[in-house]
Amino acid sequence: MTKSEELYERACKVMPGGVNSPVRAFGSVGQTPRMIASADGAYMTDEDGNRYLDFVGSWGPMILGHNHPAVREAVIKACGDGLSFGAATAREVEMAELICGSVPNVEMVRMVNSGTEAVMSAIRAARGFTGRDRIVKFTGCYHGHSDALLVQAGSGVMTAGIPDSAGVPEGCTRDTLSAVYNDAESVRNLFEAFPEEIAAVIVEPAAANMGVVPPRAGFLESLRKLCTEHGALLIFDEVITGFRLGFAGAQGYFGVDADLVTFGKIIGAGMPVGAYGGRREIMQKVAPLGPVYQAGTLSGNPVAMAAGLAQLTILREHPEIYTQLNETGDWFFGEAAKLLAAAGAKAQVSSCGSLGCIFFTETPVVNYAAAKTSDTARYTEYFRHMLSHGIYLAPSQFEAMFLSAAHRREELQRTLDVMQEFFFSDSRGMG
Ligand code: KE4
């Protein structure tokens, strides 16, 4: 029995599924999750000493790679000053000024402890600002596990949201409407069906929770126009894209203005941090300034702020990191697409900058329904092949590969070689 197996056996006795977040259980790939002991740069090492080239990067935070010295040193120093005060601190001010000074349309920001909390709070601020109750989300987009957003994927476009989880009362999702990603018409129909009732449309500007599905040309612009026309707020959920696609996030990358933006992951550099922000007139509705209540014992935690500030400062001072990251993403996912074509694989690459995935379907993947045509059994075989060669991918077809500044060309080339081995063996009559 490996140490991972032994630890996982113990974990399953005391934690649901043996994990603290479902995807980590490797359920959809039917493997024992690897118990990770340490990580550095682009690599993670498990409790049995196996080393993996990591394409999960803690689901996005590790844009500079794991254990970056500047981040590590900042955290160690901050710890020496004390872990938490439950009081205002200079580091929170610096973080808020950095975010407001770099992200368009964010004049005020509130720090929270996760992406879920950021989105939940942004939705509440949008409802408080507009005085409206309904919200629109897109099937296949994930915005954390707050009740109102756990809505059945594919629920009827015109009907009230149906909970997608036990324990969520119908009342919590009644005001959540579902639209189709990359289909602005499905949003227009909702605005026409519920005039002056929709507080906000929330979207992953580049979807990365159904696999990676970039916005089609004009889609985000159409959402902007519809929200402006109908007095609703456009919320960009940038928990993944924020400070990944560029320092100005998806607004800068796609050139579309949002009214509220949510953040997570990269702004914490691996520590528990989320944030939401927007125009002053909206954020002034948030307590203690305004009537929209939101609070948090550890919000703006000084150690977490130190980690995030260290990472964001490096990104601000070295904008070439984004150029390299996006160019490397274009090259890597471009090469992957070529090898799939050469192998005649029933699969396709879908990417946006340093985010990407391989869908095991030939249907062009522009939305959730198309993503769901993927052959998840084939993805499992691919995942296992890559893992057996020391390459750690997301243990689910419906997640993303996250490139970091620590991934070097030679490691990416080796990854492509291992992919090639799979797809060419696949093409030799393996279906
Ligand atoms: P957290 O509460 O997990 O920090 O953030 C929720 C969230 C909100 N918005 C977007 C666009 C997100 O991608 C997420 C969380 N992302 C997943 C990865 N697909 C987290 C991984 C996990 O659930 O363990």
What do these coordinates show?
- The chain has 431 residues and is α/β, with parallel strands linked by helices.
- It folds into two domains: 3-67 and 319-423, Aspartate Aminotransferase, domain 1 (Alpha-Beta Complex), CATH 3.90.1150.10; 69-317, Type I PLP-dependent aspartate aminotransferase-like (Major domain) (Aspartate Aminotransferase, domain 2, 3-Layer(aba) Sandwich), CATH 3.40.640.
- Helices cover 39% and strands 14% of the residues.
- The strands form three sheets. The protein has a seven-stranded mixed beta sheet, sandwiched between helices.
- Strand 11 (348-352) and strand 12 form a beta hairpin.
- It is globular and about 55 Å long.
- The two termini are 33 Å apart.
- The model has no long low-confidence stretch (mean pLDDT 96).
- The chain binds ligand KE4.
- Ligand KE4 is lined by residues 21, 23, 59, 114-116, 119, 142-144, 204, 209, 237, 239-240, 264, 274, 399.
Provide a quick synopsis of the model:
By secondary structure, the protein is α/β, with parallel strands linked by helices. 39% of the residues lie in helices and 14% in strands. The chain is globular, with a radius of gyration of 21 Å.
Global shape = globular
What hetero molecules are bound to the protein chains? ligand KE4
Q: What profile does the largest beta sheet have?
A: 7 strands, mixed
Indicate how many domains the architecture comprises: 2
Q: What integer is the average pLDDT? A: 96
What level of helicity do the residues show?
25-40%
Strand content: 5-15%
Radius of gyration over all CA atoms, rounded: 21 Å
The N- to C-terminal Cα distance equals: 33 Å
Number of helices, where a helix is a run of at least 4 consecutive DSSP H or I residues = 14
- Identify the strand order in the major beta sheet: 4-10-9-8-7-5-6
The CATH H-level homologous superfamily of the largest domain: Type I PLP-dependent aspartate aminotransferase-like (Major domain)
The chain-level structural class is alpha/beta
Q: Return the CATH class of the largest domain.
A: Alpha Beta
User: In CATH terms, what is the fold-level topology of the largest domain?
Assistant: Aspartate Aminotransferase, domain 2
Low confidence ranges: none
Specify the CATH architecture of the largest domain. 3-Layer(aba) Sandwich
Q: How many individual β-strands?
A: 14
Give the ordered list of helices and strands.
HEEEHHEHEHEHEHEHEEHHHEEHHEEH
